[in-house]
Amino acid sequence: MKPAYETEMGSAYIGDSLELLANIPDNSVNLVITSPPFALQRQKEYGNLGQVEYVDWFLGFAKVVHRKLKEDGSFVIDLGGAYERGVPARSLYNFRLLIRMVDEIGYFLAEDFYWFNPSKLPSPIEWVNKRKLRAKDSVNTVWWLGKSSWPKADVSNVLVPYSDRMKKLIQDPEGFYKPKKRPSGHDIGTGFSKDNGGAIPSNLLQISNSESNGRYLRGCKAVGAKMHPARFPEKLPEFFIRMLTDPGDLVIDIFGGSNTTGQVAERELRRWKSFEMSSEYVAASVFRFLDVDMPQEKVRAIYESILSGKTVEIDPPTKQLQLDII
Questions:
Q1: Which tens digits make up the pLDDT trace of 267-311?
Q2: Residues 243/155, Cβ–Cβ less than 8 Å
Q3: Which one of 12, 87, 171, 255 is most buried, counting C-beta atoms within 10 A?
Q4: Candidates 3, 17, 74, 78; catalytic one
Q5: Where are the chain's structural domains?
């Protein structure tokens, strides 16, 4: 199947992920990272299943992904939480999915991550806003799974800024801190004052999802395109792409949506593929790769060309982009 559009590093496709994955060689993918439709009680326009059938449905994709991953490859899945119907009790669908992926398919849980979105609106309305029985749900579970128990990773690629206290320790270790043994048994010596370029991140990722004027949104507004209602922020795939892959590695998003993953992978010099069923969402996702100063009529021409079934070739975002309809 030909792509809807392609760049120097990757390509976006319109179609069923299971069919598109069949064209990918086994043992060839370094990272599959995705935010699938969540298992919710209320139906969303981008498509989602109820919690009962959701786990079986997703396992079908997980089995195919397992074959496509390299032995040291990773599968990262962002899943939002949910409540049971009609009661203030949490669903366990995301945990059931994790356990079955490990027990039945053979994945290994490398680490569980939690994405805290401080800008998320209070929800669910019934239990938080109206009855005030629960705190707002602001954390997604993000499962990092490996095909083997030793997936490729380098946490030094995602170091975070030091705290002010640590900066003082590095500047003046003898004046600020005296080595001693902690109550926990850890022997904190002078080696802790070494500047490693940053601190090791935690598995709690605090990332706001509050984009208001990015390239994608401006493009959608310019041509009147429907925006994807459940986009995840660039910093989320960026973290895992940097930690789990090297330049030139292959990254795939099997529920591409607005193709945030492809945009980040392109910027990080990773090869990428994005699969998405909706032609409207794919056509609009091309705005992520267009020059911000491109004339509006040219932006519209690219968008409409993709909707008409033509493949659009785009120069990398760092260059002046050209339209080449095949």
A1: 999 999 999 999 999 999 999 999 888 888 999 999 999 999 999
A2: yes
A3: 12
A4: 78
A5: 5-160+201-325, 169-199
Asked about 91 being catalytic, the answer comes back as no
- The one catalytic residue in 3, 17, 35, 233 is 35
Q: Which of 3, 36, 124, 237 is catalytic?
A: 36
The tens digit of pLDDT for each residue in 79-93 reads 988 888 889 999 899
8 A C-beta contact, residue 123 and residue 139: no
- What Å distances lie between residue 62 and 115, 259, 313, CA to CA? 21, 20, 30
Residue 310 token pair: 């033509």
Candidates 326, 302, 299, 253; CA nearest to 77 is 253
Which residues of 35-127 form beta strands (DSSP E)? 69-79, 108-116
Query: CATH classification of 5-160+201-325 is 3.40.50.150, yes or no?
Result: yes
Query: If DSSP codes are grouped into helix, strand and coil, which group holds residue 93?
Result: helix
- To the query of whether residue 36 is one of the catalytic residues in this protein, the response is yes
